[in-house]
Amino acid sequence: EAQVTQNPRYLITVTGKKLTVTCSQNMNHEYMSWYRQDPGLGLRQIYYSMNVEVTDKGDVPEGYKVSRKEKRNFPLILESPSPNQTSLYFCASSHETGGLEQYFGPGTRLTVT
Amino acid sequence: KQEVTQIPAALSVPEGENLVLNCSFTDSAIYNLQWFRQDPGKGLTSLLLIQSSQREQTSGRLNASLDKSSGRSTLYIAASQPGDSATYLCAVGGPTGGGNKLTFGTGTQLKVEL
Fold this sequence. Notes:
The complex is a heterodimer.
Chain A: E1 4-7, E2 10-13, E3 19-25, E4 31-38, E5 42-51, E6 54-57, E7 65-66, E8 76-78, E9 87-94, E10 103-104, E11 108-112
Chain B: E1 4-7, E2 10-14, E3 19-25, E4 32-38, E5 44-51, E6 56-59, E7 62-67, E8 72-77, E9 86-93, E10 102-104, E11 108-113
Parallel strand pairs in B: 2-11
Antiparallel strand pairs in B: 1-3, 3-8, 4-5, 4-9, 6-7, 7-8, 9-10, 9-11
């Protein structure tokens, strides 16, 4: 089954404790990205990757890091989480060209206390 | 900077009614427009993708139209059912970041009542 998976689905952590949210897709997509969803603000792009070893900032990259060492994986790293990073996070993937239909993971709800 | 607006923010209708959700965007130089459904606490399910060269797409009881020149899209839901209750999100691809970068509206929360 074609899908985007994220882990963990729920995470409660404390300020400053480094964490990683994993994202994996099995559709051989070149393009992967991370979004955060906040009430009243909609979904906003954090980082994206056009292909392996190619990453760039989205609209709200501050406080986040990413890496793309393999085509299927695109982890989101919060090196020193703060309460304003409490949010619902989504990973998405698509082909780089063509129809560009985006496929989203199930989301990770992060709470930073 | 692309901005996407969805009206209304919330909508409640009786079962069986046909309804229209609206989406507008400020920059017409888009690559595509995608409608999603989001259930509470769940991820996003893609409903319809319209390329910039297309005027509409249909899937079952859903029909989405696109008018690039006026910066508008509508999602038409025929014969609504309680199972259609969800938040519907409109997202446009481009112009910045290519067609892959989506700019989202804040959604229309739909409730279909028995």
